[in-house]
Amino acid sequence: MDIEKALTEHFDGKSKIKVNKFNYENLFIPQPDEVNWSLGFNPTIRTSVNTISKLLDIPAPVSNSTLDNFHRIGVASTSAIKVYEFLFKQLDVPEPILKEVISRKPISSFDYTAVWDLNVHIIQPIIEPIYPNSYLMKFLRDRVEVEKSALQNTKKKTTPHEKGIEYIHHTLQNTQLTQAELEYLISLIPSLVELNSISDLTYDDRKSLITYKLDFYLSLIAAIDVTIINKWLSEHGDKFELPDCGIFGEIFRCEGKCHFEQFLRYIAAITEVKIGSLAVHIEIERNDTGQGVTLDEAKKNRLKEWRKGKTKPTFPTLLSFLENAVTAGAYDFSIAGSLCIMLDRYKAGLNDSCWGELINIDYYVKHYEFHLNKAAGD
To answer: How many CB atoms lie within 10 A of CB 167?
Structure first.
């Protein structure tokens, strides 16, 4: 496939190419950028290009100011072609996915299935060496296929109301919502078609929508939980004592001002120390301690910040902390900790009072058990 030619045809007639920042509108499967942001990555064109440029030690195709303009005022099609050709070539994207991303017209404004196919292609070679035949990859592919099927079915309908009913009916059968939750959400469809903002809905209405949206995140966490547990079973066999409800079942049982503090209490519990004792494992550069503050005091202050949710560690910082704190499985626990940070960041972005009713041990268990059984049956 001639990528430059395909991109030229795709952008034909467009004077400016602008990439809008993600929104929270997608319910069954969010935009990939929303998930990346929740995980702490900066989902911008500039970040993507500069990360690849640095990793491969090759020059970026355009300046940083041009990359920033993708999300501000837009860029000329010639610049857009240079950037996307650079990304697709360096990521070695297969031709079928390229055709989907470049040439296929989305079925709706919230059709991001081609972008999800691209993201799955990118992360698979990262995941597979660590978690061979991971259930996580199957979960993502299956979720995208359900979304494609649901969107395809909406083409048979004419009015927004009919399309909404068709889409939600199709996707709801692939969630862990109860029958009562399903029925309530379906009753909201006329309002969803008419209203422009979730703020116009009642508390119960918002809770219903958030329940639907959080199904993806809880399912994602459960899929990763199962993937890690299966890795541990393959490594340790009968010697491994399986957590009743997965790693996150244990985490959600812990107290905490935020989900990351729950995670820290879980690490303290499995290492059999008091949570304050974990501070010793935090790595801080001497020149970052602050004037008149000892290294030990700086570590204790950092742990307090983490527990209160005031600051969050980067993944490398979290990994080095856990390599010091636990005897084995530091990388796996780092993934779990990052997912707790994801929940905290997503909760802050959502800013809704019903969160505690939906993110807890009881609600998580049914997601974990479903995906554990599904993985066992594959």
So the answer is: 21
Residues constituting the chain: 378
For the record, the structure tokens of 354 come out as: 């019903």
Residue from 157, 216, 226 nearest 377 by CA:
226
Distance CA 346, CA 327 (A): 30
Residues 122, 93: Cα–Cα separation, whole Å:
8
Exposure string for 291-312, b = 16+ CB within 10 A, e = fewer? eeeeeeebbbbbbeebbebeeb
- Reference 28, options 129, 92, 113; nearest CA is 113
> Mean pLDDT per segment of 10 residues, for the chain of length 378 residues?
80 78 79 85 86 91 93 90 90 82 73 89 90 94 94 86 84 90 85 60 86 93 96 81 89 95 97 96 76 86 95 94 95 96 87 81 93 88
Q: What tokens were used for 240?
A: 């491994």
6 close to 193: Cβ distance less than 8 angstroms: no
The residue written with tokens 């966490």 in the block is: 221
